[in-house]
Amino acid sequence: MQSSGTALRVVHEPDPGLDLAAAETAAGDFLRALGVSLDSESLRGTPGRMARAYAELFTPREFDLTTFPNDEGYDELVLARDIPVRSVCEHHLLPFIGVAHVGYLPGERILGLSKLARIVEYFACRPQVQERLTKQIAGWLGDQLSPKGVGVVIEAEHTCMTLRGVQATGSSTVTSTLMGTLREDARSRQEFFSLTGVNA
């Protein structure tokens, strides 16, 4: 838990193995191996763009985890709905895109609201599976904030399922993680799911 007036600086340490030049070469080899000619003016720069795009997808922005004393003793649910989620399926390296609903029951401290979105981005910017992403967000909030309860729901469309394979266009995947009171108390759990718009 943070001490009063202190913010935790959350930094994604750059991967010492990050080599954009090597990634560009590999992307070119990959495309040519799939029969894509890179001779045209519009495709010549594609390997470099691919390398930079994936580097961006895998690098979250730094942020300060700002918390404040819960001076008013607020003990009701704090919920941020429809936080944009974009990540990359670790099995096919294809995007999955959707929204996260993140809530908590405050303890001694409350969180700057924009930081809920920052935390979602922090864990989404890496090859992921939705189940792990959901648990990581909830677990990290529980560790850093010591709230009475945490709830996270993610609804996302996985292009590895909609654009290839079964081609289940329009399908979405919903995952949830509940901790503390939101897991143990039926009324609190129902309130959380009702406010997120998810049928429990």
UniProtKB/TrEMBL annotation:
The keyword Lipid metabolism does not apply. Transmembrane segments: none annotated. One of its GO terms (molecular function) is GTP cyclohydrolase I activity. It is an enzyme of class 3 (hydrolase). Its EC number is 3.5.4.16. It catalyses: GTP + H2O = 7,8-dihydroneopterin 3'-triphosphate + formate + H(+). Pathway: Cofactor biosynthesis; 7,8-dihydroneopterin triphosphate biosynthesis; 7,8-dihydroneopterin triphosphate from GTP: step 1/1. Keywords: GTP-binding, Hydrolase, Metal-binding, Nucleotide-binding, One-carbon metabolism, Zinc. Zn(2+) binds at C89, H92, C160. InterPro entries: GTP-CH-I_C/QueF (IPR043133), GTP-CH-I_N (IPR043134), GTP_CycHdrlase_I (IPR001474), GTP_CycHdrlase_I_CS (IPR018234), GTP_CycHdrlase_I_dom (IPR020602). Residues 24-195 form the GTP cyclohydrolase I domain. Pfam families: GTP_cyclohydroI. NCBIfam families: folE, PRK09347.1-2, PRK09347.1-3. Homopolymer. Belongs to the GTP cyclohydrolase I family. This is GTP cyclohydrolase 1.
